[in-house]
Design goal:
- It is built from 10 helices and 18 strands.
- It is of the alpha/beta class.
- The strands form 3 sheets. Strands 1, 12, 13, 14, 15, 16, 17 and 18 form an 8-stranded mixed sheet that branches. An 8-stranded parallel beta barrel has the order 2-3-4-5-6-7-8-9, surrounded by 5 helices.
- Helix 4 crosses helix 5.
């Protein structure tokens, strides 16, 4: 059975790299755990790093984090749906917000639970995902500051996740300036400017992060060491925190070109045939995953000589050439993962999850 393995030593390596980087620059940060889909074993590994602050977009995952360690500060990282507001106040110490009507309900619920719920107001800076429009910001904050049971601890933004808009000095300078404007206008202190995610790390490493941005929300860099500017690896980090292990369920030398009349397959694709491939053969290995589990484009074979051909719903076909490795039925084939592929695997009940040193 296929399984995802998390390597504790690689996770610790990446955490120490990031923690040192942020501490050196006077930046607070938390780990975004939504990739782990609430898996208790993996969450325990994250909490045991000693981060003290974990972010997630599912309230059930924050509930589990509080079960593991009630002292961990939890942040709900999208505008809360109204039907889960009681749980948001109960299990999230902080939430990211953009809607006044939601904040009114958070205020009412916080009072009912005799709590102060902390909020970070997200600002639209060009990527067109969540965020208050900048021209509405002063009026928005004026209303939020009056809400009982609500404490504004920061402002933030999200870039790159929707339309790929990259962070730059100008956008982040503007974000830091909004904090100063709001503090002067309302005589309120706002401790956090949450302008950093994985995509912002290269700016920090190149000393291009504006003063004032002092909070990062990090997931992809921790688990994959990803540099989103170059699509490569951040120098000094590991891309081997998580790997997929699959099992060979058939291997045989077969023709490279299918025979018979070709139509659309169940994925809506039609195989393209090259005349040069007629008469050629190669060893084709079938492994025990398919598009039900992951899109093939999100897989990177550890053995660089393996070529991913295609997948059906629950089987994936590999070209292993002349089979120099001598793969046989029952052998394991490993893959590195891209973020969105790992997310699908972690959410699947069909894929086991294991921790290794």
């Amino acid at each position: 059975m296929a399984y995802v393995k998390l390597y504790r030593s690689e996770l610790q390596h990446n955490f120490k790299f990031l923690d040192s980087l942020f501490k050196k620059n006077g930046i607070k940060w938390g780990i975004t755990s939504k990739l782990l889909c609430g898996n208790r074993d993996f969450l325990e590994e994250v909490i045991n790093l000693g981060i003290g602050e974990v972010h997630d977009s599912r309230i059930s995952n924050l509930r589990r984090i509080k079960e593991i360690d009630p002292s961990t500060m939890t942040i709900y990282i999208k505008p809360p749906p109204k039907d889960i507001i009681p749980d948001v106040v109960k299990y999230a110490d902080v939430s990211l917000n953009t809607e006044l009507s939601t904040l009114y309900e958070l205020s009412d619920e916080a009072q009912r639970q005799d709590k102060t719920h902390k909020v970070i107001i997200m600002i639209e800076m060009g990527d067109l995902r969540e965020g208050v429009m900048r021209e509405d910001l002063i009026n928005f904050y004026e209303k939020v500051f009056k809400l009982p049971g609500i404490e504004v601890i920061g402002l933030g933004t999200n870039l790159n996740c929707m339309h790929g808009v990259m962070p730059d000095g100008d956008k982040l300078i503007q974000l830091a300036l909004y904090k100063q404007i709001i503090e002067l206008r309302f005589k309120k202190e706002i401790p956090l400017v949450s302008g950093g995610t994985t995509v912002t790390i290269p700016l920090l490493m190149r000393d291009q992060l504006p003063d004032g941005v002092n909070h990062f929300r990090i997931g992809e860099a921790l688990f994959f060491g990803k540099d989103l500017f170059t699509d490569g690896l951040i120098d000094g980090m590991s891309d081997q925190v998580m790997e997929l292990y699959t099992q060979v369920i058939e291997i045989s030398e077969k023709p490279v070109v299918p025979s018979g009349e070709l139509g659309m397959n169940p994925q809506g694709k039609q195989t393209e045939v090259s005349q040069e491939d007629f008469g050629k053969t190669s060893y084709r290995a079938i492994i025990d995953i398919g598009v039900l589990d992951i899109q093939p484009d999100y897989l990177i074979p550890v053995n660089e000589n393996i070529k991913i051909l295609d997948a059906s719903s629950d089987m994936l076909i590999l070209d292993v050439g002349t089979n120099e490795k001598g793969y046989k039925v029952g052998d394991e084939i490993r893959f590195k993962l891209k973020y969105m592929g790992a997310l699908g695997l972690m959410s699947s009940d069909y894929i086991q999850k294991r921790v290794a040193d």
